[in-house]
Task: structure prediction
Amino acid sequence: MDQKHYSIEHITGDHEHEPVVNHSGNRPFQSVLSARMERRTVMKGGVGAALASLMGVSALGLVGCSSDDDDDDSAEQPGDGGSGGSVTLGFEAVMPSTANEVVVPAGYTATVFLPWGTPITGSYPEFQPDGTNTGAQQEEQVGMHHDGMTFYPIDVKTGGNSSEEGLLVMNHEYIDIDALHQNGPTVDAGVRTVTDEVRKEIAAHGVSVCHIRKTDGVWDLVFGSEYNRRITGATEMDIRGPLRGHDKLVTAFSNDATATRGTLNNCSMGPTPWNTYLAAEENWHGYFKNDDTPLPREHARHGIGTGTRYAWETATGGTNGEYERFNATSIEASADLDYRHEPNTYGYMVEIDPFAPESRPKKRTALGRFGHEGVIFAPATEGEPVVCYSGDDSRFEYIYKFVSAQPYHADTASGDLLDEGTLYVARFNEDGTGDWLALSLDDADFVSAMNAAVGTQVGDIQFDTPFADQGEVLLNTRLAADIMGATPMDRPEWGAVDPNTGEVYFTLTNNTQRTEDQVNAANPNANNETGHIIRWSEDGGDYAATSFQWDIFVFAGVAGTETVVDGEAVVTLDESNIFNSPDGLWFDGSGRLWIQTDGSDAAPYQNNMMLAANPETREIKRFFVGPVGCEVTGVTSTPDQTSMFVGIQHPESWPAGSAAGHPRSSAVLVTKDDGGVIGA
Ligand code: FEO
Ligand code: CA
Ligand code: CA
Ligand code: CA
Result:
């Protein structure tokens, strides 16, 4: 998420939703100078942003002297018709736009689809554009602030691949609290005095499962379908994996630490090889407060403080501490009587089976507890472990990989495979190699590093007590990664796996707080305002390998920004493809890489956008520009790639027809007028 559009800041003063909470100072190599000498991929612009970066000058300051006449790169100009790669980008690039509408290439059409408030279940309550729907009604309508999404063909469980009917599952990351209510939130001396407003806010978060069907060429919701479902910040769910039953997850709601309520700040997601949906819990810390001193390390390392984003904990009513649970202060005599551990039930990947509408979502704790942006699975191979990757989107946080203990068998595979396995964190070495460092008490290196850290200061945390069990390691995933010397990244957002080569790509959206003495080869720019995309190949082509080879795919930036590999510019950005703050990332079935942005929407970039890239040639073309004020996030398509769904989050005053002050986040359906493959 971007840090804009949180207008309840006047209540809480909490507008730093992605705080720097990693002060561990991890830097795998001490010699910064030699690191710079050895880096293979650098960013240049005109006279050389890499040099400028070394001198502490922003690359953006070089706009005026950039030169884009260096055309020996492989990025094709619009209309060149591709450059020989197996993937085509056969559309005319869209130019930067300030229009308050979605712009797509000639020959394409974009249509608003399932915006916030669309009734999808229960009594199908009609949407009230002025914000007057109740909390109970919101629980039966599409949530706000669309983000990651996946289309599941309706017949996929029986081996089909329908492109005419399916389940579109969508995350709703957070809310525009002013747009949600008729006159914004009611707050009296910091207290939320209208409980139904809070109920509605919690209901506007979460996930929507929407059964959709194309009839006579027109997509629509299947009214009355048993699959249509809302999962919200209040839905009961199970704790699974090593933290199930753990002492530190005991609450007044679940004395045996097997359950919790709700999922929040669901940013991106990942479809599993067995056709369920994992929703990520990203900036969940901001919903909780804790007045205890000192804070437990599992709260401090995540930035939990004494205020909350929406002050839900001040609401009264509800059942069994429904609102009080957002206050994690130790109030009663013991943990089974209060909600001191409630934040320990957040920070996970949450599995939802969209084909089982009565099923309880499951928090898969073996995948770690941090600010999960999303998750991306490697292709599953019969008899091999299941492997997935997840980034922790805060400044200087890490990229993780999970490898299941049990092998994948298509006939029997389920989310239970995610309850047992090894969580690794990435170290990107300066020479282009990388290592996956196990975060496991079964790993001798981990135990050794942990024991060596006892009694020392790890970042801001005084590490006096070793992790007692694997549950504690996972509860403190970030701290465990600090101890192992993982590489602090420039805010890892989405990942994607190239279906043709198996390479894994991740966006590193930006990090303006990285200083010159904090750069490393994988994050080579101080004051990284525009971000970059990194990629790697696992050694031996084995996703479960513990080492890999990496490089930087592209640096984002202004026209003239060059991505230079071994002295040669392999991409030079121009008006057809300048972008900043890459965030959403997705490979379509052909191997086209789609890049979405959540960055500066000022000149020269203008409104946030989605681009398509050829991963082989690094040709990049802008395909889609969103309306004013939005971020473009979330993309999926039907198997035949003729219907694409794209998320528009926090638009300023869109779509047309919205009531004044009540913009609507929405999915957008993109089709090609000739019915062809999107982007081809
Ligand atoms: Fe929710 Fe990191 O974007
Ligand atoms: Ca967002
Ligand atoms: Ca972002
Ligand atoms: Ca994001």
Summary: The CA atoms of residues 55 and 516 lie 8 Å apart. Residues 4-393+401-672 form one domain. The first strand starts at residue 41 and ends at 45.
